[in-house]
């Protein structure tokens, strides 16, 4: 039995990404929609990184984390969007086995890294509001680098484990992935391996990854809310909350979309694709908008850059 499964597994050289099950005449509309969103992702996240790098006033822990968030959003959307857009015009809609493994690994790496980075950003806001006098000491450059490096390390380890587990399954049932990218649940559906142990290990791994980040975010905001409510002036409370609202918005959009996608029953694959679309493309598009529209420092920096360009012109 093991030899037969190995043989079946080795025969798979490529997969077919079904994408969205819509009428062919809608492919152009979807392509243009993906192109518009991806262009906004590129402009927003590259622009955010450029602003943070070029403006010395933004040389703070919060913007160091934000720059890395933009870097991650730019790359993990780039893992998904170009291939999805190509497939709107492709007859075969195929992706090689190696390409599927690479896409799966990179997306898992960046999305897990983002989860840990958002937890680090929540801790940063906790220190800034609950212990402002010691903020520069506690959030030292060394600690910030360690938190970011730790986020990437955890993302890498998680992705290696998840990818190796998923692609040692036997895919003899079908080559057709009912999704627009290589993801866990669609790959499970086309596997003819016994998935009980795989699902148990995968669930445990997901819990180990998600629970610590969620706990750090929730506990940090519990302390933040408690500290803000103790501020006597309305203006002071408003200012304190405004420093956290952007981060809270980003966390809500990302985790809301992820939970919605994984809680969607398998019998509704199209709904699952829409939820996946939210956190693969919509979230990376919204993140720079949320931070730029609600952040005075970023708006001032952007205004200065635009004024300089006008002077040059």
TrEMBL record:
Keywords (A to Z) from UniProt: Cell membrane, G-protein coupled receptor, Membrane, Olfaction, Receptor, Sensory transduction, Transducer, Transmembrane, Transmembrane helix
UniProt name for this protein: Olfactory receptor
Short name of any one Pfam family annotated for the protein: 7tm_4
GO cellular component terms, A-Z: plasma membrane
CDD domains in the cross-refs: 7tmA_OR9K2-like (cd15419)
Family statement drawn from the similarity comment of this UniProt entry: Belongs to the G-protein coupled receptor 1 family.
Membrane topology: Multi-pass membrane protein
InterPro entries: GPCR_Rhodpsn, GPCR_Rhodpsn_7TM, Olfact_rcpt
Subcellular location: Cell membrane
PANTHER family membership: OLFACTORY RECEPTOR
GO MF annotation, one: olfactory receptor activity
Native source species: Orycteropus afer afer
Gene from which the chain derives: LOC103204304
């Amino acid at each position: 039995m093991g030899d037969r499964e190995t043989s079946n597994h080795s025969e798979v050289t490529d997969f077919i990404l079904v994408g969205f099950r819509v009428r062919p005449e809608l492919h152009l509309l979807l392509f243009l929609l993906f192109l518009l969103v991806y262009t906004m992702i590129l402009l927003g996240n590259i622009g955010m990184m450029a602003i943070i790098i070029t403006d010395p006033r933004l040389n703070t822990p919060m913007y160091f984390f934000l720059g890395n968030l933009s870097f991650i959003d730019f790359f993990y959307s780039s893992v998904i969007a170009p291939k999805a857009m190509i497939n709107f015009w492709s007859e075969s809609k195929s992706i090689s086995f190696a390409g599927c493994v690479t896409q799966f690994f990179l997306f898992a790496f960046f999305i897990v890294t983002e989860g840990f980075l958002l937890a680090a950003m929540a801790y940063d806001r906790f220190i800034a509001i609950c212990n402002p006098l010691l903020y520069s000491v506690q959030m030292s450059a060394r600690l910030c680098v360690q938190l970011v490096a730790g986020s990437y390390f955890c993302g890498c380890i998680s992705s290696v484990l998840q990818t190796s587990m998923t692609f040692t399954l036997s895919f003899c049932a079908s080559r057709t992935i009912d999704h627009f990218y290589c993801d866990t649940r669609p790959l499970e559906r086309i596997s003819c391996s016994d998935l009980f142990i795989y699902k148990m290990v995968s669930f445990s791994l997901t819990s180990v990854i998600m629970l610590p980040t969620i706990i750090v975010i929730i506990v940090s905001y519990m302390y933040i809310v408690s500290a803000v409510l103790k501020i006597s002036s309305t203006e002071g409370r408003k200012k304190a909350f405004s420093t956290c609202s952007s981060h809270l918005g980003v966390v809500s959009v990302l985790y809301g979309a992820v939970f919605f996608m994984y809680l969607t029953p398998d019998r509704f694959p199209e709904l699952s694709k829409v939820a996946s679309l939210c956190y693969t493309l919509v979230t990376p598009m919204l993140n720079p908008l949320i931070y730029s529209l609600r952040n005075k420092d970023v708006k001032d920096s952007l205004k200065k850059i635009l004024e300089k360009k006008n002077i040059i012109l």
